[in-house]
Write the structure tokens for this entry.
Amino acid sequence: MLSAYEIAALGLSLKVAAWAVAGSLPLGIAVAWLLARGRFAGKTVLDGLVHLPLVLPPVVTGYLLLLLLGRQGPLGAWLYKYLGISVAFNWKGAALAAAVMSFPLLVRAMRLAAEGLDPGLEQAARTLGAGRLRVFCTVSLPLMLPGVLSGAVMAFARSLGEFGATITFVSNIPGQTRTLPLALYSLVQTPGGEQGALRLCIISVVVSLAALVASELLARRLAARLRG
Amino acid sequence: MLQVTANKQVGGFRLEAAFQAPAQGVTALFGPSGAGKTTLVNIIAGLVRPDQGRVALGQRVLFDSAQGVNLPPERRRVGLVFQDGRLFPHLSVRSNLTYGLRLLPPEQRRLELEEVVELMGIGHLLARRPATLSGGEKQRVGVGRALLTSPELLLLDEPLASLDQGRKDEVLPFLARLPQRLQVPMIYVSHSRQEIEFLEAKVIHVAGGRIQAAPAA
């Protein structure tokens, strides 16, 4: 069935995308909530920063990550010195690049869900004795769940396809940072690699499609629960 | 005894109201739409903050702009039934009913689930979702949910206004039973004389953001 090369690339891609989404989800929910409900100076700046990876060339984002988080970078040096963590040229860096690139998609979907909430339901929960945090956890967040889910799936799919920022930030190292798109790119660069490239294309399509179908089914079940 | 003094500017509308309501029975805030009745109720519940004023329930001060007191809604022990029900769509009727009850320390519980379910006649609805209920059933669940927080005051903000006549006649008897069965004073907002007479409420007239007439206290 799948060759070792394909399994390595596919497994790495899934791992990188899963960590990218799981890691950015809490921050994504917080930022989406702030943008939807918050009233503070600098909201426009935050909004712009969140969307920056969407409009910048991915190579630019990758290069900025490299400057900031490489071993010599200000943040990267600090992380390595005090926490012993290095994200340069390993799969953690690939996950970080994917998380940054997919963050706008994650936040957009969840922000829409937060803006669609009926504040009247949250007020009702307050009069029933629930404090702000409890209202968020028991009313707001459950009602936002369809949006959280669709945002997470979009971000997951975007992470699977992340190329430019990844190859710039953490290079193309087999088993560490050579995800599906990078493996495909490597095959295209190799004479006689066309057939292998085509196989990776098919794998990419199948995985992405499976993610979308799974999210659609889950979204339907969630919607059915709200309808009774 | 509920004592309310509240001034509030909302856009071009100015609310300047002061009234008292007794510690038992039903007091109606009666007046046309846009008179400021809902704003008053939201001020008592803590959902709207007046520019100046004081709200006291018995010995407890809920809001006092002069002393800088403003209890959040969750600490006022005031139940509120909304015109549009506002049941939580993601929870079953049972979970809606027990939402506030579960947050209440056992020693403060004056009512249990079975009692309220029987009082409001909603036993057959417990497993259902709010979206499958009729308007009248939703309001009965809404009242039950507020009662289960064992409030010291129950506010009802036009609970029947969005129902047709048949549904109103279905819900009213349940509301009329409450004052005798529970020792909870009720503030009932309405622009329907018929409902107020049915509930034998003391009437406070509200119009244009002011109290026009109140019964002798």
About this structure: The longest helix of chain B spans residues 165-181. The two ends of chain B are 10 Å apart (CA to CA). Chain B has a mean pLDDT of 93.
